[in-house]
Amino acid sequence: MAQCTVRTATVFGIEAVAVDAEVDVGAGLPTFAIVGLADIAVQEARERVRSAVRAAGFNVPNARIVVNLAPGPLRKHGTGFDLALAVGLLTATGQLNPSIARDCAVVGELSLDGSVRAVRGMLAHALAARAQRRPLLGPAESAESLALHGLDYRPLTHLAQLRSGVPAAVVGALPTVLPSDSEADFADVAGHDLAKRALLIAAAGAHNILMVGPPGSGKTMLARRLPSILPPLDDTERVETALVHSVAGIDDVPALAGIRPFRAPHHSASIAGLVGGGSPPRPGEASLAHNGVLFLDEMPEFGPAALQSLRQPLEDGHITLVRAEGRLLFPARFALVGAANPCPCGFRGDAQRRCSCATGVVERYQARIGGPLMDRIDLVVDVARVDPGLLLSRGQSIASAQLRDQVLAAREIAAARDVADNRVLTGVALLSACALQDRATRFLEDAARAQHLSGRGVTRLLRVARTCADLAGESAVTVEHLSEALGYRAKDGA
């Protein structure tokens, strides 16, 4: 009888939880059993490991093989256990140096030919190994993005490489993504000065914004240019954002390179698609937009329950899912950008086309977004159709690079107050940052009473006004800044 224990992990939420793969090879009928609440993907590892071991030139013992994945009550899922099982099997049978299993955390999927593949959540595994101060033995294709976090990463291309021991550690650097010449730029947008100003404020303070206008007026076009004026992610935000993307199985290199995410789900998205869920639970679009932008085109067409599920993350910056397996916390601090028609036909208030919708139909359509969610939207701006003459003119609009400079300058002022952006200001800190004088205070009180603003509405109004003052480079919020912020409130005063 021979035994070996290999340290590996399984992803639960966005964290990699340590798992010990205990391999026992002994006398008995030739079987290969895996126990410890393993899902189908883990159970199928038996066939992948057998084929990979043979393809790498090792021997599969004609014996009874039992693998226990501990702790037993923790559900194990995914194909990331393949490499750990192969290392444990080969070490237990004396075909590999025991130091490999003793010193390293091991994660990776095996192909039938013995090559090693990456799995979901490699960044989560890397952070867990670093916290345990263990080298991580994993697929070489992940080396570029994982070697940059102070981790001792040992890349492996093929199982046969282990004959010569553990591969040498690699030293990487932050990936860089060069801007594309085809990147959407505000210089290509004719007119829409008010909408551009509103998006500038939204970018400078990470505010939520809703654009309302008829079909073809340019709402989606404007929203898709918002990333071109956003500041890059800082080092902490890069890891936070890339971690969510890695667990979700999407490319994490842009986030590691500092590019803020821009997510635009279809309006048929479910609650689980927006806030996360499934089995095993995966992050939803709100979490994939962490530290970036969540764009909801045709916002009233989203399911009411799905829209209302965004209320908590808009306030708290995270999503809490409670499942039978336990409590999961997904980060979800994003700026919400919505686009909506004013009515079902889309032409209510349009100067050129008559609206054909009855009043009751319009009210029901606009109510689909819901008052509580509207109360969390900082800016509401009307986007009218641009005159064809202006569209065909050769005039040059302000470029994204110029707007980005203004955003960076405003965020530097916010950073001097020890905040990343103005959306986190609240209570005494917000009032102190605004430094309202008597005239501005009286104006705010009168406006709040006249428009029946809630406490949350007043807070968000002050945050937008503070951003307007930052863009103007002024230390105190004045009546002019409050007036501009008030002009972006929803028509019903929500």
Explain the overall architecture.
The chain has helices at 40-43, 45-55, 82-92, 98-103, 122-131, 143-146, 193-205, 219-223, 235-248, 253-256, 271-275, 285-288, 304-308, 311-316, 359-366, 371-374, 388-392, 400-415, 427-434, 438-450, 455-472, 479-487, and strands at 2-12, 15-26, 31-35, 64-70, 105-106, 109-110, 116-117, 136-139, 153-156, 209-212, 262-263, 293-296, 318-323, 326-331, 335-340, 379-382. The chain has 494 residues and is an alpha/beta fold. It folds into two domains: 2-164, Ribosomal Protein S5, domain 2; 186-424, P-loop containing nucleotide triphosphate hydrolases (Rossmann fold), CATH 3.40.50. Strands 11-12-15-10-16 form a five-stranded parallel β-sheet. A four-stranded mixed β-sheet has the order 1-2-4-3. A three-stranded parallel β-sheet has the order 5-8-9. Helix 7 packs parallel to helix 18 (400-415), helix 7 (193-205) packs across helix 21 and helix 19 (427-434) runs parallel beside helix 21 (455-472). It is elongated. It starts with a strand and ends in a 7-residue tail after the last helix.
